[in-house]
Every structure is written in C-alpha cells, then in structure tokens.
Specification:
Chain lengths: ~400, ~375
C-alpha cells in the first residue's frame, strides 16, 4: 500500500497547480441545474486546457488531442486538482466521454478526422439518442427506424432523456435499420446533425423544476449513409463498448466528497435553538455514518484506480460504483435537508433558501441518477450475473 | 499510487486461508463447539510456527515484525474461517502495549514467548470503552479490586493486562485473589472472560504511573480496525455461502439464484461489501502510514463494518430460507461471530459518537 503518487507525478501536480492559480480567472463559473454536461461557454476554457495537455490528453494528436499515453494516475491528479480548486475541469459529457472513444475504436478515418477535433475543442456539442419511451432498461427493443433511400437513411421515431439536445449540434444515436433481423442485430449507430429538417426538440422538465433532459422527435429525417459508424446492424455491439464509460462516470467519489464537505459546513452553520444543528447527537450519529460511506467510496475509487494501473480486473468491485455512489449522493443531500428541517424545503426563489436551494436540487437530481444510466435494479442484475456468476432469468 | 494488497500480503492471506481450510474447517469448528471448547491448542501452535501469532511482535523478539495492514489480512482470514483462535488479545493488543510501554526487561520476558505462542496475554480493555453493569477495577494501596468484563481471549490466558485509571497492570492468571470466569456469548468461536479481583497484588506495572492511557487507546483502536477486518471476513463467507446455496437450491423448477428477488439480495450484499473492503484496508494502513487520522478511521471503519455485517449475515440467512435458521446449516457461526464483533470494544453508535468528538462536531 502506497498512497503517494511519486515524484514525477507530484511534479505534474505542482505544474498543474501553478496553471490553475494563474488562469482560474478565465474559467467559466460552474452552476447547477443546467444538467451534467458542457455547453458552448466552456469552449475557450476547453481549448486552453487541450493546449496545455489537461484535456483530451490521450486523444491522438492528429485528431486534436495531446497524444499522451493513457495514465490513470495523471487522469486522477487532473480530476483532483480541478475539483479542489473549484474550477471546471476538462469538458466532459457524452461527446467527449462516449462518442470520441467510440469513434476511435469503430469510426472510419474520415469520421475520426471530421468529428473528433471540434468535439475535443468543446465547439461541437453532442447528445446521445439511445433511450425511447418504449425502450428504457430494455434498450435493445428500440423502434426508431432508419429506412435506406439511396445514399440516405430516413429516420422516424422518438428519443427521450436526451440531455443537451437543446444545445447540441449533433446526436449519436441508435436506430433500427434491419427490421427483420433479431432484436440486437437490427440496430445501427448513426451520427445525426440536429439541424436536419424533421427534428423537433422539446424540453423535458423534471421534478427538480429544471429541464435537464429533452424529448427528440424525428419525422422523415434524412441522414447521409456515410454517417453510419461501423456497419449496419452492428450498432448494439458498438454502443455497448461505451456504455461502460457512462456507468463509471455516474457515482464518482469526488462528487460524494464534495457533497459531504458541503454537508458538514451546512450542519455547522445552520442554527437550531441558538446552537449549531450538529449540537444534536442524533444528527452527529447520522453524519458519522454517512462519512464512513463516503470514505469507503473514496477508498473504493483508489482501489479501482490501482487495478487499472496494474491492468488487473477488480472483479465484482468494479460493478458496484454506480449503485452505491448515486444512492450515497441522494442520501447526503437528504441528510442536509433533514438537518435544516423546514428550511431545507425552501424553494430556490425563497429569500431564506440556503445556498440557492442547492440541496433540494441535488436531492432530487441524484434520485434521477439512481434511475438514469441503468436503473439500480438493472445494476443489481449486472452485479449478480456478471459479478457473482448467478444465472440469468430464463426467457419467457 | 498503489491501493491494495501487496504480493506478500496476498500470499499471507492465501497461507492463512489454506491453513484454516485444512486444520480448522467448519466441521472441526462445530466439533469444538459441541465439546464446549473455544480454543484449538494444536492449531494455535501450528499457527505460531507459521509466524501468524507473532505477526506484530518485532523481529528482534522473534516475531514477524509485520504491520497493521498485514494483521488485517490475517484477521479477515480468521473471520472468513470463523476460527476458534485467540488473536486480538495475545497477538495484537498485548504485543502493542508491551512494545510501547514495557521496560526492556518486560519486553525481553514476554514478547518472545508471545511470538512463539507459548504464553497468551489478554487485555481487560472493555471498561476503557464503557463500563457496563458492576464492572470497574480500582487500584487501592497497590492492590486491584473490582470486576473486568468481556475480556477478549481471556479464557485460558496466562496473564492479563489490566487498566485501572491511566495505569496498566500486569497480572498473572494465577495471582491470589483473581478469579477468571468464562463469559459465554452467542459466538462459540471466541472466548470472553470475566475477571474478579479481590485485593489482587499485581506483578508489575507497564509504563510510568498514570502514563498508559494513550497507548491503551491506540491499542484499542488497532483492535477496532482489526475487528472491522474480521467482520469483513464474516461478510465474505456469508455471501459465498448464500450464492452457493442459491445456485444449488431449486424451487418452481429452477435454481433460486435465477430469481431476481434472490439475485438482488446477493447483489446488495456484494455492493455493500466491496467498498467496505477498501475502507478496512485503508483504516488498517492508516496505523502504518497515516497516524494522525488512524483513530478516526478505525472508529468509522468498525462502525461501518458492524452495519454492513449485520445486513449481510441477516440477508444471507434469508437467502437460505428455512435451512438458514437451522443449527445444521453452518451459516449461523458467522451470523453469531458478526453479532459479537459488532459489540466488541464499542458498538456502532458509540464509535460514531467518538468519530464526531474527534472532529469537534458537537462543540
């Protein structure tokens, strides 16, 4: 066990700290409620980060990245430092985190050169067109259809839970192109310009009061066949290589730690009967219990990072991050609200709301993440079947 | 960055597990229980020869000179095996206290014999955490009176380390006026004792007058981290048994492991156990490398593992259905070991209160 990163990594960290101190004024301010993802305001900052090797670090140079070898420790240091400085880090989101790795693995040379560089610079925003009203946990039952007409695919159908669709210029999505093939074999992976006639985006307002998602409707949307990634009918396989990235993105230990520190501060500042809310021993008990869970997830993340560095499988441990992390984040916000009592329920427009109503937002938004990106119940199937070797439910 | 067990620690883990599987399989643990024994003397001797008993004794005294994380690897294996062997008294708290407080003569006299498994020393630590019922030992004119309860590994010990205030006294089991009574708990794999002192003259003191408090608290914290490790081993075994049983048991024409209701229980156990494993490693490692936060980490880890283990052993029992409630099914050995482990040296609420105090939350 050695929790230090070693001198060369610490030198990298020191250099990054100098950069952050010098340039933090240029960083856009992070808000909440606009969804998880990047937007165009981030682009100048993102370009600077790419230039300095703090973003798109491992993307090959010919596609606009830094061309460095993948190094999980460097990635961890970058994430830690941006977070501890309270500065938005390298642009994340579905274009950079899911589409770019997919194109690198499955895209044609022309697709890589055309789409990766502007995505990496933060100039091209993507949305993910996977879920449909009738295809959630059973994603492969999707019915949005792509019919071949000459050199075009004509797309009809509907997508839902499409974050950033209202700002995105492009969608990567799954459409059924082979209606006669078996369920999983009839799906293709398609890049769809969002300004194509026939696309309508409707904001989907959620329980948080914000519209973090959209519905996207397709009526005879004509997309060039060259925008297919991989061959027709290979879309399911291709999408699955990147779904894993999404699961690791959700429920990260850094988010939980940030929420925990905010929670302690809130419970110390909140006055109850003239004392800090934490004067209540029952609340201290709950805070210590959730601190242990938060610390366990930090340690768990270090364990998984080590496994990646060693190139080892962490077994069932690698499958439990999302299930634990999202529930923990929801509980952290719930405890803050409990500690504030009625004041915890104040709407963000209320003059007495704390922190702009941030805890209420997190509490509800994190419940959404317990469900999104593979529900808790689907996660449990995965843990039991892939992690513990238990048999699948027989097909009816 | 290297968060995980080293190759040596994996070998140690495999070695202890192999030894327990061969020498103390659960059938043997059951035999000992049926015979009313909570200690396998032959297995203990062999474990000493393997260097496990002296794991925390420095090499110059014949021990293995290992760290607390190594000891946690051993503790997890002992929990996994529900091993009826002493550990936290003679292998952990006693050597730590002798190492920190003992005079050169005391160390020379005790540590080599502890490492060799020739003597067993238990520590009457429970009252340092909380005094229950009529417990409490006083020193008056150099003699000890009163009662010490829940002395872990106390049955059959050759000597005791007994706190009275901030003094720590060494008392041979044979000292006139000392009565050692077994204190049977639901856990058949661990031997707790009640010590009754009637004006007992201790053999000697460890450390300076009123100078043992900090060392005692640290030894108790190490023991807590290792109790967390033991609870982790109990969890691992309970989940293994539950998954194996669910694969083999059929109802409605198929293995119950194929039903989501059963699978989800097992997934919830695994999801609780894996981050807890990382927490146990971290809390143990803190004593080796992060001393300023070790007390906090030990409290958090033991409180957390107590909760995780309560959930896991109960859920594993439910996965077994009716058979899980029988004595014939082995699972209850871990259910009971976890139930005792949860309470030893501070239950979860006591330890969370301590964690809160260490961080000044109530002030």
């Amino acid at each position: 066990m050695d929790l230090s990163y070693g001198p060369e990594y610490e030198a990298f960290r020191a250099e990054l700290r100098r950069f952050l101190q010098e340039h933090r004024g240029e960083a856009p301010r992070a808000g909440f409620g606009e969804g998880l993802l990047t937007d165009t305001q981030l682009a100048p900052w993102q370009r600077l980060l790419v230039e300095r090797g703090y973003a798109a670090r491992t993307i090959p140079r010919e596609y606009g990245g830094g061309g460095f070898a993948a190094d999980p420790l460097i990635a961890a240091i970058i994430a830690e430092e941006f977070r501890s400085h309270g500065v938005p880090g390298p642009a994340s989101g579905q274009g950079i985190d899911m589409l770019v790795p997919t194109l690198l693995e499955h895209g044609s040379e022309e697709q890589k050169r055309r789409w990766i560089p502007p995505t990496v610079r933060g100039e091209l925003i993507w949305c993910q067109g996977y879920s449909e009203p009738g295809a959630g946990s059973d994603l492969a039952s999707l019915t949005t259809a792509g019919r071949v007409e000459g050199d075009r695919l004509v797309v009809n159908g509907q997508k839902i839970w499409t974050s950033t669709a209202h700002v995105a210029q492009m969608m990567f999505g799954l459409v059924r192109t082979e209606p006669d093939a078996k369920k999983h074999a009839g799906i293709s992976y398609l890049l769809i310009p969002m300004d194509t006639p026939g696309i309508e985006v409707r904001p989907l307002r959620t329980m948080t009061g914000h519209a973090e998602f959209n519905e996207v409707f397709f009526t005879d949307v004509r997309v060039p066949l060259v925008n297919l990634v991989g061959r027709r009918g290979e879309g399911w396989k291709i999408a699955n290589t990147t779904l894993r990235h999404e699961r690791d993105m959700l429920g990260s230990a850094s988010t939980s730690e940030g929420l925990f520190h905010g929670l302690v501060k809130t419970l110390i500042e909140e006055r109850v009967d003239g004392s800090r809310a934490l004067a209540d021993p029952k609340l201290r008990d709950q805070l210590a219990a959730i601190q242990a869970r938060t610390l366990a997830m930090r340690c768990h993340a270090m364990r998984l990072l080590t496994a990646r560095v060693r190139g080892e499988s962490a077994g069932v441990a690698s499958l439990v991050t999302k299930l634990n992390g999202c529930q923990l984040n929801h509980d952290l916000a719930g405890l803050a609200i409990d500690g504030m009592g009625e004041a915890g329920t104040l709407h963000r427009d209320s003059a007495r709301a704390r922190d702009g109503g941030r805890w209420l937002f997190h509490w509800m938004f994190q419940l959404g993440l317990v469900i999104g990106g593979g529900t808790a119940q689907i996660q449990k199937n995965i843990i039991a079947e892939r992690g513990l070797g238990m048999p699948r439910e027989p097909k009816p | 960055m290297n968060f995980g067990l080293s190759d040596e620690q994996r070998l140690l883990d495999a070695g202890v597990r192999r030894f327990l599987a061969e020498r103390l399989p659960i059938s043997r643990v059951r035999e000992l229980r049926d015979a009313g024994q909570r200690f396998d003397r032959d297995a203990w001797k062999e474990l000493a020869a393997l260097g496990v008993v002296g794991c925390l004794v420095p090499e110059r005294f014949g021990g293995a000179g290992l760290g607390v994380l190594d000891a946690a690897v051993i503790a997890t294996a002992l929990g996994h095996g529900a091993a009826p062997l002493p550990f936290l008294g003679p292998c952990v708290m006693a050597p730590l206290l002798l190492g920190e407080l003992g005079s050169p003569e005391q160390q020379q006299s005790w540590l080599p014999r502890l490492a060799a498994g020739e003597v067993r020393v238990a520590v009457a630590a429970a009252e340092r955490v909380e005094r229950r019922q009529d417990a409490g030992v006083r020193a008056e004119s150099g003699r000890l009176s009163g009662v010490a309860l829940f002395v872990l590994d106390g049955v059959g010990a050759d000597a005791f380390l007994v706190p009275a205030g901030d003094d720590l006294w060494l008392v041979p089991a044979s000292a006139p006026g000392l009565e050692v009574r077994p204190l049977p708990t639901l856990d058949a794999t661990r031997a707790l004792a009640e010590l009754r002192f009637a004006a007992v003259e201790p053999a000697e003191r460890l450390g300076a007058a009123r100078g043992a408090g900090a060392a005692l608290d640290r030894a108790i914290d190490v023991a807590r981290a290792l109790l967390a490790a033991d609870l982790l081993g109990c969890c691992d075994r309970a989940l293994e048994l539950a998954v194996a049983y669910a694969q083999q048991r059929s109802q409605f024409g198929r293995p119950i492991a194929s039903f989501q209701a059963v699978k989800h229980l097992c997934a919830e156990m695994a999801a609780a156990i894996e981050p807890a494993r990382a927490l146990v490693w971290y809390a143990a490692h803190a004593f080796d490398a992060l001393p300023e936060e070790a007390a906090l980490d030990a409290s958090l880890a033991k409180a957390h593992l107590a909760e995780v283990a309560s959930f896991v052993v109960r859920t594993a029992t439910e996965v077994h259905g009716g058979i899980g409630f029988t004595d014939e099914c082995d699972l209850h050995f871990w259910f009971k070991r976890a139930a005792l482990g949860r309470q030893l040296l501070g239950g979860p609420s006591r330890l969370r209160a301590r964690a809160a105090d260490l961080q000044g939350w109530g002030a």
